[in-house]
Amino acid sequence: MGRRSKARIDRAPRGTRAGLPRPPGSSPPTIGVDLGGTKIATAVITEDGRVLASHRHPTETDASAQRVIAAIANCIETCLGDVAKSAGAVGIGVAGQVTPAGVLESAPNLPWGRLPLRSKIEQAVALPTIVVNDVRAATFGEWKFGAGRGESDVVCLFIGTGVGGGIVADGHLRNGATNTAGELGHITIQLDGRKCHCPNSGCLEAYVSGWAIGERAREIAATRPVAAARLLTIAGKPSAIRAETVTEAYRAGDALAQQILEKTVEYLAAGVVSIVNSFNPSVVILGGGVIEGLPSLIPPTEALVRQQALEVAVRDLRIVRAGLGPEAGVMGAAALARAKVARRGPR
Amino acid sequence: MGRRSKARIDRAPRGTRAGLPRPPGSSPPTIGVDLGGTKIATAVITEDGRVLASHRHPTETDASAQRVIAAIANCIETCLGDVAKSAGAVGIGVAGQVTPAGVLESAPNLPWGRLPLRSKIEQAVALPTIVVNDVRAATFGEWKFGAGRGESDVVCLFIGTGVGGGIVADGHLRNGATNTAGELGHITIQLDGRKCHCPNSGCLEAYVSGWAIGERAREIAATRPVAAARLLTIAGKPSAIRAETVTEAYRAGDALAQQILEKTVEYLAAGVVSIVNSFNPSVVILGGGVIEGLPSLIPPTEALVRQQALEVAVRDLRIVRAGLGPEAGVMGAAALARAKVARRGPR
User: Is-contact A40 A75, C-beta < 8 A?
Assistant: First the structure.
């Protein structure tokens, strides 16, 4: 992604340009924002999930919080175009820990400390705003518009650089007692196992995340350089081996890369078995960069889960690939804004 | 427990004997039934959790389903006394897999196959009836009247012969897609670990349940008979070592028993960490026979969980002992009947 903003106006909204009344039963669109370490994605989304306009802007992680608030407001007020003026609310998904009141408490990849994001954005754009964790927003998006549509009990597991998750139970996104339900990357799959980036060892994330796959591959390359010849060739040097290196070697037919990914499937299945037996969802949605790069991990994972989980828990279970890709966050944030904010007309 | 029924009438209900109108705001009591492999426990419970009458009857596991239905009906209609006549509904918790329609599908410790328990009991006692899994009933009881009272996000983990669990999220008992949410004994804590009684290996139950503690102790006794001298003395022979043997030896200051239980705490903490990071409850309730026999396992488990789980997930967390003991099931079944069945007056 370049540093320039990219805007795309997909289609005009119904009945706003000419001041016509909205068709009966329709409600104003909402704006979704996905605030991550590299980009601010914004979009105007209708009740039924159509994208009326979308925009991407790089996150200036060296800028003050005030400048990033201004950048978000500018994306909403200018870059999204006139269709944003018909929106009734803003939903922001942010890669960090958020309180129920919309205060960003901590964000490992964003440079600010505690930030009252909801109130700052409400002041800046004069629209009711909600702020949630980006993975929960993406879960809501996959449930409302993606692979979990129409289901009551859905668990999303997003496997990217890290591993995050979200839970829909009995038709509601679950928050937990301190707004952090769904940290499924940090279920233990191996007591006293690999050190995680969290305080614990043996977490699912420490085996199947992008960083963990890279780390496991580097360890093997250090002890078995002959077997790892192709990984080393692709990466250039041992320390440059990443999950992407393993993926590339696997696609080229490399035996070690296949072994690493087969173990990854075993680890992933162990985590999904715990999820399935605990939550009893009808759908487990697997997404995130690792899965998008290697969707072929899904069928063998599903086969293992069906062998290992309780029969009654897998009887009606589907394990599927996420349907919205990187748009899940922005679409979910917009839909959550609709669901949570008292409906108001356009400004 | 003897084979004779034991009945106890605790107090007369308000306003039923003399035909007085019920005080404003009060609703009829409900009947809870806990149908297990050894006993049928029944009780008449008020809305606020008072036990008006209770009764225990041995389960005749060699009898036909028809005779057990008749025994339950007899407990309700005769043994509980006149107070049962004021009840508005019946809730049955049963140690097995139950469909949402109240059909018992399978029950490892009960001799019948598929049994439409709800409709059979409704026919027999002419009261609206609900049937649920006994562990979920006990979870509801602990939440309504026990250690989880007043909380919105509660997870119960019952560690007895096996390990079962139940989930209250956002103020509702969760069922999952096929009515089996909360099988927390079957979360993986050790990939390729100890064989479980389910199809999988490495489950929490395979480490901390009564059967698993006994099995682990017998394995140690087989390889280290000197260290296991006290276990062998208490049990009489290696094959007779049980979890109870370990408990007794631990209370007598035995070093090996202490080691076995310290490992049990590590295993239990690994499971609770997964639960806490996944569900983000405000309270984790530990109950069941193993915990009732060894409540001193709770503080060291809590200490480990606080070290290992995500900081935000343990910030407001309490880990507590179950409050209702073996009455949780019957009280929860009665409360679920109240919550689920449209309220009707007494017969």
Answer: yes
Q: Give me the total of CB pairs closer than 8 Å, taking one residue from chain A and one from chain B.
A: 171
CA distance A274 to A6: 41
Determine the Cα angle at B138 with ends B134 and B142, to 5°. Answer: 175
Q: How far is the alpha carbon of A307 from chain B, nearest alpha carbon, in Å? A: 7
Q: Is the pTM of this model over 0.95?
A: no
Which residues in chain B have their CB less than 8 angstroms from residue A202's CB? Answer: 270
Could you please report the per-residue DSSP string of B19-72?
-PPPPTT----EEEEEE-SSEEEEEEE-TT--EEEEEEEE--TTS-HHHHHHHH
Structure tokens at B75: 């407990």
**Contact criterion met (CB below 8 Å) for A184 and A135:** no
To the nearest 10 degrees (0 to 180), the angle between helices B298-308 and B255-279 is: 50
Residue A84: count other Cβ atoms within 10 Å of its Cβ.
27
Among the partner residues A151, A182, A310, nearest to B278 by beta-carbon distance: A182
Q: Residue B186 and residue B255: Cα distance in Å, rounded?
A: 29
Contact B187 A186 (CB under 8 A): no
Rounded Cα–Cα distance for residues B125 and B117 (Å): 12
Range A249-258 contact pairs with CB under 8 angstroms and sequence separation of 24 or more: A250/A294, A254/A230, A255/A227, A256/A220, A256/A224, A256/A227, A256/A228, A256/A230, A256/A231, A257/A217, A257/A230, A257/A231
Burial (CB count within 10 angstroms: exposed 0-12, middle 13-18, buried 19+), residue B237: exposed
CA atoms within 13 A on the CB side of A122: 13
Phi first, then psi, for residue B282 (nearest 5°) are -90, -20
Instruction: Single out the residue of A160, A139, A163 nearest to residue A151, CA to CA.
Output: A139
ipTM, 2 dp: 0.89
CA angle B301, B180, A279 (to 5 degrees): 60
Per-residue confidence in pLDDT tens, chain B, 347 aa:
334 455 554 444 443 344 455 555 578 999 999 998 889 999 999 999 999 999 999 988 788 889 999 999 999 999 898 999 999 999 999 999 999 999 999 887 788 889 999 999 999 999 999 999 999 999 999 999 999 999 999 999 999 999 999 999 999 999 999 999 999 999 999 999 999 999 999 999 999 999 999 999 999 999 999 999 999 999 999 999 999 999 999 999 999 999 999 999 999 999 999 999 999 999 999 999 999 999 999 999 999 999 999 999 999 999 999 999 999 999 999 999 999 885 444 44
Nearest-CA distance from A87 to chain B in Å?
A: 30
3-state per-residue secondary structure call for B185-230:
HHCECECCCCECCCCCECECHHHHCHHHHHHHHHHHHHHCCCCCHH
DSSP string, A121-133: HHHHH-S-EEEEE
Q: In this complex, do B280 and A187 lie within 8 Å of one another by their Cβ atoms?
A: no
Contact A194, A207 (CB under 8 A): yes
Give the CA dihedral B333, B336, B337, B338, nearest 10 degrees. 130
Residue A133: alpha-carbon gap to chain centroid? 9
Looking at the DSSP assignment, which residues form a beta bridge with residue A91? Answer: A32, A130
Cross-chain CB nearest to B184 (options A175, A278, A309) = A278
